Amino acid sequence: MQILWIALAILGIGLALLIVNHDGGRVFGLQNDIFASLLYLSLWVSVLIVGLAGHYYRRGNMLRDLAFWALLILILSVLYAYRLDLAAWVGL
C-alpha cells in the first residue's frame, strides 16, 4: 500500500502545481494543458500498477501476464498499421 500513497502524493503535488501556476501557463517547461494530460495519464498508470501489485502475489505470474498483454497489443498494433497492405494482399 506504500506505492498507493506515493502515487497519490505525486499526483497531489502535480495538481497543486497546476493550481498555483494557473496564470503562468507553464509547469516544468510544459504548457498547463499538456502537464494536466500527463498528470491524468499518470493517474491511470498508477491505478494499473497498484491494481497489479495488489492482485498478484508472485511476480513470475505478473510478469508473464504483462508480457502476454504487451505481445498481444504489439501484434494488434502491427496488424492495424498494415491493414491496407494486408487487405490488398488478401484481395479484399
Topology:
Layout: H1 2-20, E1 26-27, E2 30-31, H2 32-55, H3 59-81, H4 83-90
Antiparallel strand pairs: 1-2
Helix pairs in contact: 1-2
SSE series: HEEHHH
Average of per-residue pLDDT values: 80
Class computed from helices, strands and strand pairing? mainly alpha
Principal-axis shape: flat
- Hey, roughly how much beta strand do the residues contain? under 5%
Instruction: Provide the helix percentage.
Output: over 70%
Total of helices: 4
Please provide the count of β strands: 2
What low-confidence regions span 5 or more consecutive residues with pLDDT below 50? none
What is the terminal separation in angstroms? 52 Å
How many domain modules?
A: 2
Radius of gyration: 20 Å
Major β-sheet, in short?
A: 2 strands, antiparallel
Instruction: Going across the biggest sheet, name each strand in turn.
Output: 1-2
Please provide a written account of the structure:
Helix content is 80%, strand content 4%. With 92 residues, the protein is mainly alpha-helical. Strands 1-2 form a two-stranded antiparallel ribbon. A hairpin with a 2-residue loop joins strand 1 and strand 2.
Please provide a brief summary of the model:
The chain is mainly alpha-helical and 92 residues long.
